[in-house]
Amino acid sequence: MKKLKVIGIALLTLFLTVALSACGQQTTKLKVAEVTRSIFYAPQYVALEKGFFEDEGLEVELTTTWGGDKTMTTLLSDGADIALVGSETSIYVKAREANDPVINFAQLTQTDGTFLVAREEVTDFKWEDLKGSTFLGQRKGGMPQMVGEYVLKQNGIDPQQDLELIQNIDFANIPSAFASGTGDYVQLFEPTASIFEKEGVGHIIASFGEESGHVPYTVFMAKASMIDEDEEAIKKFTRAVYKAQKWVEEQPAEETAKLIQPYFEDTELDLITTVVDRYKSQGSFATDPILDEEEWNNLKAIMDEAGELPEDVPHADLVNTEIAEEIINE
């Protein structure tokens, strides 16, 4: 009887210990706004599907806000704690003399994600082939357009003089405009570029990402006040992102495609695999979250070339690398 009593007390103690431990594990909720839903952001979806955020005690609520302006507005109005968007938006906010600047703290993609698609099949493409053609470009002021024009200029083409540049079509309608016959060439994201190639609508002939080099194309950012007030949550978030980046780097493209397929239900697995492999092969997925100064300066050069750089903002003003460096060195 005495032995049973001792066992009972021991079990009760164990139960209370586990219960108190569970109560002590607080979950931090973070609202994340992504600029669009894209296979380009595969590591983010991997972090969600593999439970890397949960492992850090984070509950991440992901919302797609469809556009840089809307995403930044959502962040600035506290509709989101973290935004996944192009770094150029943080420079635009800084130029408006915001009291609470937006800080880039973890890079997700490090190249442009668009491709040059030709209506006709090209066997020996040269950039000078675009001269005299009709080019269906991206929205003025956005990173795709700025990178597109930068690459054209680097290859001796004046976008305003050497071709007919169309920029008055909404982002969502660019693919359908090309498919219906507008333009000889078009600048497209994946998976649309690969879908067009598969259907014979167009042919991928060049990568703007390969041509433009490393830039902080899509970055996780938060208001400076949020980082100051809850730096621990930002560290946990960055740690989860880094785990996902390493996972994507180490796994075959097909494994990543299988994992993120729920986010692209209308896209076939083999197509997702093709896109992941293409982005991975050209180094579009950042392998760590550090946004270095060289990438930042490349971004500013592209913006300046496009006439869209409102002011020269030093790397140290809008980029926090300390958090990412700490995570990597753990």
From TrEMBL:
The keyword Signal applies. Residues 1-21 form the signal peptide. SUPFAM superfamilies: Periplasmic binding protein-like II. The keyword Signal applies. It is found in: Periplasm. Its main location: periplasm. Keywords: Signal. Belongs to the bacterial solute-binding protein SsuA/TauA family. This is ABC transporter substrate-binding protein. It comes from Thalassobacillus hwangdonensis.
